[in-house]
Amino acid sequence: MSHITEAEYKNIFHSSPNPYVLFTPDLIVADINEAHLQLTDTRREDVIGKYLFDAFPTPQQEIADLLQSSFDRVKKFKVEDTIHLLRYPIRYSNKDGKGWKDRYWIVKNKPILNQDGCVVFILNNPTEVTHLISSGDIDPSWINNSDFMRNANIVREISKVENEHRKMRALMEQAPGFVSILRGPDFVFELANKAYYQLIGHRDILGKPVREALPEIEGQGYFELLEQVYRTGEPYIGRAKRIHMQQEPDSDLAELYLDFIYQPIFEDDGSVSGIFVQGHDVTDAHNLSRKLSYQASHDSLTGLFNRREFELRVENAIKEMLVIPNVLSLLFLDLDHFKNINDVCGHRAGDEFLRMISMVLSSRLRATDTLARLGGDEFGLLLKGCPEHVAMNIAQDLRQAVSEVEFVWQNRRFSGSVSIGVFSFNDISITITDALSVADAACFLAKEKGRNRVQVNRKEDDELINRRQEIDWIRDLTEALKGNTIELYCQKIQALEHPAKYPNRYEILIRLKNNDGDMIPPMAFIPAAERYGLMPAIDRYVIEKTFLHIATTFKDHTSLLSISVNLSGASLNDDTFPEFIRNIINVTGIDPTQICFEITETTAVANLAKTSNIIRDLRKLGFRFALDDFGSGMSSFEYLKHLPIDYLKSTAHLSVKFNLISLMQPLSMPLSVLQTLCISKR
Ligand SMILES: Nc1nc2c(ncn2[C@@H]2O[C@H](COP(=O)(O)OP(=O)(O)OP(=O)(O)O)[C@@H](O)[C@H]2O)c(=O)[nH]1
To answer: Which residues lie in coiled coils (predicted)?
Structure first.
């Protein structure tokens, strides 16, 4: 058999009575024969090298889409595709003018494959059928039954389906989330919407396997997940999963967080043929929630953990000991004389110093240690798997490091100093509150012993036990002050002589209730309140409550009553106290002559000048003053000369009559009973 030369092939192509156009896969006109040029009334030079729709324009996009989809099928499935009826108008231009001539066609598109099976050309062969449609002399029943019309109906159905398909694609395109379809075991990109392209930085991915299209994803576990879904047919849902990918060509990898689903695509026989990928970029929401949780767990000034997070971590560490026996060490650090920096240079300097100390402490710790700022100038440190002797060494190291800090602010120099309490334990029954208060108490002792030192907790250390008890009282008292649950009682003051002259005298006392409902007398908690500076708050609480009670309950019987209220030394040293009293009188409108403030001898003597001034100030308003427990201390009559007091109250064994001497009655009663008592005695 003789071979046909290329020239002979060309000759056959050009002289064929059937119209042909040869397109490249990009739909560029590679060649066109005479029959086609005549049929479409076109000149060769106007179409060669041009894109299909530039060479053969059409007035309507839908028509172009139909033709385009036929070419797409040819490229995809590599088999001939026929459009059984296509309305494709042809442009004309003659002496009558320009316009479009309606033409109808049957169009066949055939792939020309190379040796590797790739599409190198598409041979387009249109057959014009306009005359069949427009002649009008065709028997209608023949039209309905003819193959031609059946084909036409099929075409209509196909275009309906294709229309639906187009709408679906448009919806997918506009979907706010990203969508793509991966086909076959190599996960070749068959489709991707706008959001997907945006996510991957508009890379050219269609027709490429995912490993080739997105190489930077390798090693992040995503390809393995695709394979798993493909193999098992089970969908996979990822929530805020981290991925590193390029969002711009040649850019650095960006850290993103995605919510997504890999949904298997099933064929009719139940096999998986691809994966439908759908999801959202949730990076912003994720980062925001990370930021919020950072803020909730960190101290904004120093960047260290805050008290809440610290307590949570200590609590978890105690729970972990249930599973793995361990020794935990808690360090409680309190800067020495920090207030000094604030007072001398202002809070900004104080803040800067706190930041500096935080850095010094952090730099000496392991990543697994938990350092937190608990508040003010207090820090907590949790060391896991750390026995006491190691914790002591660490504490000494930190103390030393802080003592070497030199802080300069506006030419003023300050050196650092810290007191540290250490508590090591392996007892899983301990509560977090106890553990922290033991370390706190040890730190307190370190302060008391002279500061700039480390104090380890020893169970047998009485001082520490007392401190812990005190800290518990302070916690209870602070709660009670906040919750208004300190209870006020009154106790009658009995004049030894002329009792009728002083009928209704009462002293206000405070009581605290413990968790079991038992009343706790003041001598149990007042020392702790004095030591921890809670007395001014307690005094004000009692004064407010008592004055309000008198104002509301004894409005019409005020002259019947005289009430004694104890005042602590701290209030007498507080320059704002007289102002507080003036305000409360204005608010309640009570008569100051009904009130007698009781102060102790030791308080008065501690700061005689200041105390005398405040007493004078308040007496001018009408208040009276009594010196309590006279005789229990130095009992020097000398200083009494300088104190402008009205009464002396003495212990029973020392009967000194000054103006009025009283004895406590053993029974006391709640303040609320007072009204009934007084009124009935009237
Ligand atoms: N600059 C600054 N000061 C704070 C902050 N929080 C609390 N303070 C102050 O820190 C001081 C802590 O005082 P203390 O610990 O009682 O006093 P100190 O001078 O360190 O005395 P000792 O602990 O007894 O040695 C108080 O004056 C608070 O007002 C803060 O965030 N910034």
So the answer is: none
As a whole number, the mean pLDDT across the chain is 83
Atom of ligand 1 nearest to the CA of 451: 25
| Strand blocks (E) in 184-288 | 188-192, 236-246, 253-266, 272-281
Is the distance from the beta carbon of residue 352 to the nearest atom of ligand 1 less than 6 Å?
no
Q: What is the pLDDT of residue 610?
A: 83
The span from the CA of 21 to the CA of 123, in Å, is 6
Note the pLDDT of residue 627: 82
Q: For residue 251, how far is the Cα from the chain centroid?
A: 30
Query: What pLDDT score does 299 carry?
Result: 95
Work out whether the CA dihedral 491, 495, 499, 501 comes out positive or negative: negative
**Ligand 1 pocket member 379 (CB < 6 A):** no
The fold of the 302-459 domain, in CATH, is Alpha-Beta Plaits (3.30.70)
What CATH number is given for 479-681 in this structure?
A: 3.20.20.450
For ligand 1, atom 16: residue with the closest CA:
339
Q: Is 675 in the pocket of ligand 1 (CB under 6 A)?
A: no
Query: Does the Cβ of 82 fall within 6 Å of ligand 1?
Result: no
Q: Which residues of the chain have pLDDT under 70?
A: 1-4, 133-162, 458-465, 495-502, 555-560, 629-641, 650-682
CA 184 to chain CA centroid, nearest Å: 41
Q: For strand 562-566 and strand 505-513, is the pairing parallel, antiparallel, or unpaired?
A: parallel
CATH code of the region 6-167 = 3.30.450.20
350 lines ligand 1 (CB under 6 A): yes
CA nearest neighbour of 262 among 226, 232, 208: 226
In the reported structure, the alpha carbon of residue 334 is separated from the centroid of ligand 1 by a whole-number distance in angstroms of 9
From-to residues of CATH 3.20.20.450 in the chain: 479-681
Q: Residues 97-125: pLDDT tens digits?
A: 788 888 888 899 999 988 888 899 999 99
Q: Which atom in ligand 1 lies closest to the alpha carbon of residue 337?
A: 19
The alpha carbon of residue 496 and the mean position of all alpha carbons in its chain are separated, in whole angstroms, by 68
Whether ligand 1 lies within 6 angstroms of the CB of 339 is answered as yes
Q: Is the CB of 416 under 6 A from ligand 1?
A: no
Ligand 1 mean position to 526 CA, how many Å? 23
533 CB less than 6 Å from ligand 1? Answer: no
105 CA to middle of ligand 1, Å?
92
Domain 175-287, CATH number (from 3.30.450.20, 3.40.50.620, 1.10.3720.10, 1.10.287.110)? 3.30.450.20
Whose C-alpha lies nearest to ligand 1, atom 21? Answer: 337
Q: Is 560 in the pocket of ligand 1 (CB under 6 A)?
A: no
- Structure confidence at residue 95 (pLDDT): 76
Using most ligand atoms within 8 A of CB, pick from 351, 373, 377 the residue to mutate for ligand 1.
Answer: 377
Q: List pLDDT tens digits, range 448-506.
A: 888 999 998 865 566 666 777 777 788 888 888 888 888 888 888 776 666 666 677 88
